[in-house]
Amino acid sequence: MQWPKLRPSRETEESPLAKRLKRLAGKLDELPGKDAVRIRLAEELEQQQRSAAAELHHRCLTLVGTLNGILKHTQLQIAPETFEADRIFSVSETLIQINASGRIVQIVLRPPAMAASTEHFFIPYVLEARIRWFNQDLLDRDQIPEHHLYFCVGRNGETGWKYFDPRTRKVGAADEEYLADTLEQLL
Questions:
Q1: Which end of the chain is more exposed for a tag (fewer CB within 10 A), N or C?
Q2: By three-state DSSP, how is residue 27 classified?
Q3: Spatial distance between the Cα atoms of 76 and 79, rounded to a whole number of angstroms
Q4: How many CB atoms neighbour CB 107 within 10 A?
Q5: Residues ≥6 apart with Cβ < 8 Å to 163
């Protein structure tokens, strides 16, 4: 013999609105945890961008210091001499400039619009820059060469500065040797 099915009483049955409100309340209770994760990720990204900018400035400073130690008749200048990584977020662009008796290498840094972007480069990057070099001859000919620099974050945790030459499509490490090559093109 089969027992008859009992209908739940109206008092114990939840209305669709009550169920919906419980689901909504659960989602709202999850918000502080999700916000904390977003804030932590944003802070980590900012710290990574600051470190990348400071690393690039340090490479430039090392190059200038090494060359100034060898030079006998002239001295290179770098601006700014000390780099405050917090400045990268206080202005839209940050400039690093090396001056070798009127031969200029400029690096303009800026954070990308998105957190880790692949908009302009095939490897995800968290900081981008443009490096330009010029002297009076290049200015007279309206030629200012420019490469793109990207602080890349690889899938396996590898990070580092890469350059991209849009004219030749060449890609490589933007290290001290690259910076010396760039400066050498002005001579």
A1: N
A2: helix
A3: 10
A4: 24
A5: 131, 147, 148, 149, 150, 171, 172, 173, 174, 178
At 155, the amino acid letter reads R
Among 142, 143, 163, CA closest to 152: 163
Residue 155 in tokens: 């899938």
Residue located via tokens 């910076």: 179
Please give the DSSP secondary-structure letter assigned to residue 111.
-
Q: Quote the tokens at residue 187.
A: 């001579």
Distance CA 136, CA 8 (A): 89
Query: What SS3 class is residue 153?
Result: strand
Give the pLDDT score at 83.
84
State which amino acid sits at residue 86.
Answer: D
Give 156-184 pLDDT, tens digit per residue.
767 899 999 999 999 999 999 999 999 99
* Amino acid at position 185, single letter: Q
CA angle 58, 64, 65 (to 5 degrees): 85
